[in-house]
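Q: I'm building a small set of examples for a reading group on sequence design. Run inverse folding on the following structure and report the sequence directly after it, with nothing in between.
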C-alpha cells in the first residue's frame, strides 16, 4: 500500500509540471513496481466483480445506450467516479491529452451519432500538463505529442486555469459546429466543465464547475440552465 501511495504522489507531482518542462527529463519505470501493481489491480478487480454479481454483467452484455459521451483529459487524477457513481453503461468515455475533439473525432462521432448520447460533456481540469505545454514551447517533445498539442488553440504564456477554460470553450464551439442540427432540434446538449481539484477557480476543491452550456458562458444564465424537459433514464439497453 505504501508503494501505491508513493507512486500516486510521484505521478501527481510530475503532472503538475508542464509537459515541456519534462521533455528532457524522462524517467524510467520499474518492472518490480509494475508487477506489484498488476497484482493489486487483479485483487481490486476481483473484489469489484464479486460485489457487482453475475446479474449486473449479464445486463451489461445486452448492449449500451450511454446517456453521455464524455471527452476528458487522460490525466491520472481525472476519473469517471468523480461525477458518476454508476458509470457502467452510462458514460461513453473518450480520453486524450487536452480533452479535445480534433484528435478523437471519430470516437466522439460514434458516441453521439451511433450510440445516441443526449449529452456531450467536455471536461477540462486544473493544473493540466497539456495546457501548460501548449501555452509554452513544446518543440523538443516527441512528434506524436507535438501533433496532439498543435490542435490546442490557446495563447502562449496564459495562466493555467485560464488556458484550461479557454480550451474547454474552444472544444464546445467545435462541437456546436459539428452537431449544430442536433443541438437545434433539442436532441443534444453540449456542456463544457472544469474539474477543479486544485480550487484554482475558488469554487471549492474537487468540484466539477460547468462553464459552458450550448455556447452560453454567462455564469448568471448558466445557473438556470438547462431547464428539465424530461426525466433522464439510466439503463443498460
Amino acid at each position: 500500500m505504501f508503494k501505491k501511495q508513493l507512486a500516486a504522489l510521484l505521478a501527481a507531482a510530475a503532472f503538475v509540471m508542464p509537459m515541456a518542462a519534462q521533455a528532457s527529463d524522462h524517467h524510467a519505470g520499474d518492472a518490480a513496481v509494475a508487477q506489484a501493481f498488476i497484482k493489486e489491480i487483479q485483487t481490486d478487480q476481483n473484489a469489484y466483480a464479486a460485489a457487482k454479481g453475475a446479474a449486473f454483467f449479464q445486463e451489461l452484455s445486452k448492449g449500451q445506450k450511454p446517456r453521455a459521451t464524455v471527452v476528458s483529459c487522460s490525466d491520472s487524477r481525472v476519473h469517471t467516479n468523480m461525477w458518476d457513481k454508476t458509470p457502467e453503461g452510462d458514460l461513453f468515455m473518450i480520453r486524450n491529452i487536452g480533452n479535445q475533439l480534433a484528435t478523437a473525432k471519430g470516437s466522439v462521432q460514434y458516441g453521439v451519432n451511433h450510440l445516441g448520447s443526449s449529452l456531450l460533456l467536455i471536461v477540462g481540469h486544473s493544473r493540466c500538463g497539456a495546457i501548460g505545454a501548449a501555452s509554452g514551447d513544446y518543440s523538443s517533445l516527441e512528434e506524436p505529442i507535438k501533433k496532439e498539442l498543435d490542435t490546442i488553440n490557446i495563447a502562449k504564456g496564459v495562466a493555467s486555469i485560464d488556458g484550461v477554460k479557454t480550451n474547454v470553450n474552444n472544444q464546445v464551439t467545435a462541437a456546436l459546429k459539428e452537431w449544430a442540427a442536433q443541438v437545434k432540434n433539442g436532441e443534444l446538449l453540449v456542456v463544457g466543465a472544469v474539474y477543479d481539484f486544485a480550487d484554482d477557480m475558488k469554487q471549492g476543491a474537487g468540484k466539477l464547475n460547468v462553464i459552458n452550456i450550448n455556447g452560453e458562458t454567462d455564469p448568471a444564465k448558466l445557473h438556470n440552465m438547462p431547464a428539465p424537459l424530461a426525466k433522464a433514464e439510466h439503463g443498460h439497453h
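The first helix runs from residue 2 to 16.
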